[in-house]
Amino acid sequence: MVNRSRSVCAVLLTSVLVGCGSTQSPQSPQFEGDPAALPGPSGAAPLPATESEPEELAGVNTGDLVRRERVLWWKLVNELYAPCSEQAVSIAQCVREARSCAACAPAAQLLADKIHGGAAPPDAQAAYAARFGPDVKQVAIGDSPSRGPENAPVVVVVWSDYECPACKRAMPFIEEAFATHPGQVRLVHKFYPLRAHVHAGPAARAAFAAQKQGKYWEMERMLFDNQLALNDTDLRRYAQELGLQMERFESDRQSDAAGVAIERDVQAGDKAGLQGTPHILINGRAFSYGLFSIDPDLGAWIDLEVKLAGERGASATSSGASPAGPGSAP
Predict the structure, then answer these.
(1) Of 40, 36, 37, which is closest to residue 93 (Cα–Cα)?
(2) Residue-level pLDDT at 320
(3) Labelling 174: which of 180, 264, 300, 301 has CA 20 to 30 A away?
(4) Cα 78 to the center of its chain, rounded Å
(5) Could you report the per-residue pLDDT of 272-306, keeping only the tens digit for each?
(6) First to last CA, the chain
(7) Residue spans with biased composition (Low complexity) (predicted)?
């Protein structure tokens, strides 16, 4: 079992999917409570408050907003900087002038959707910061299990615990988002067995051993499909059902290399601000369960990343520049 801080499994309190939580040790990086930075030019002064009447913005659907919601939304899109740092204007001005920032209209739509969904302005602003802000984590993929092209414009990194119910529930949505964009998304798995889950560590070792024989993804599905049956006999049976060479399976799952790989992923997760599993980074930005829900926000987020990556690539091609790589800001 990986040696780290005590962990507890959270419960599902609202319609938002809450993950299984990790309490970091005092030596671990502390990210809890740190709000994501807002988009905008470095060191720029706050934009002035607006008292103007709400207007329509091209490409932004605000038809369902009542008067109160429209006023709140209009203040946000006029008082927050556009999501592209080179555009030192408000979101509203960016959209109105059709500036070269493809993320401006989606950013305005996000704020409209959050306000219409009942979010207070500070929460809508926090969602905007998380989704479009400059807080982009760089995570080494290394030899972690991955699917999709290495040069895919969208990289989704997921830290999972095989005994975590929230991880099991998230997997179909992650799989669907991956399958919807063939060749455009790279899916990467990282291990994060929680100490409170007694079978999570052995299951992670079994998945590592399966990876060594080219069957990681099959083993992952087997483990999540049989989440209540993860004892040693079960793990051996799954390996046999997958046709793994059993002597090698036993050697690999008990090896020091398995422990090193798991601990490496745990440390990377802590550094990336992991607060619970599953912890999902989409092009380096954390998918926060306090601000977004797996269904439908995860798929919509990845859909937009693919679209924005395509538009950035087209713009770079027409200008002769190199398109921005995964993890870069829109």
Answers:
(1) 40
(2) 54
(3) 264
(4) 27
(5) 999 999 999 999 999 998 999 999 999 999 999 99
(6) 39
(7) 35-49
The residues, any chain, with a CB within 8 Å of residue 142's CB and separated by 6 or more, are 264
In the chain, DSSP assigns E strands to: 7-9, 20-22, 146-147, 154-160, 185-191, 276-277, 279-282, 285-286
Separation between Cα atoms, residue 20 and residue 165, nearest integer Å = 8
Residue with tokens 């422990």: 259
Compute the distance between CA of residue 210 and CA of residue 215 in angstroms, rounded to an integer.
5
- The dihedral built from the CA positions of residue 244, 249, 253 and 258, taken in this order, carries a sign that is negative
CA 263/CA 257 separation, integer angstroms: 10
Question: How far, in Å, CA of 217 to CA of 19, rounded?
Answer: 21
Model confidence, pTM: 0.86
Question: What DSSP state is assigned to residue 8?
Answer: E
Collapsed DSSP state (helix, strand, coil) of residue 141:
coil
Q: What is the pLDDT of residues 66-98, one digit of tens each?
A: 999 999 999 999 999 999 989 999 999 999 999
Neighbours of 320 (CB within 10 A): 6
- Name the stretches of the chain with pLDDT < 50: 1-17, 23-33, 321-330
Exposed, middle or buried by CB within 10 Å (0-12, 13-18, 19+), for 161?
Answer: buried
Cα distances from 205 to residues 63, 141, 167, 240, in angstroms, run 52, 18, 17, 15
Residue 28 tokens, joined: 């671990």
CA distances from 202 to 96, 262, 265 (A): 55, 11, 15
**Spatial separation of the C-alpha atoms in residues 36 and 291, rounded to whole Å:** 12
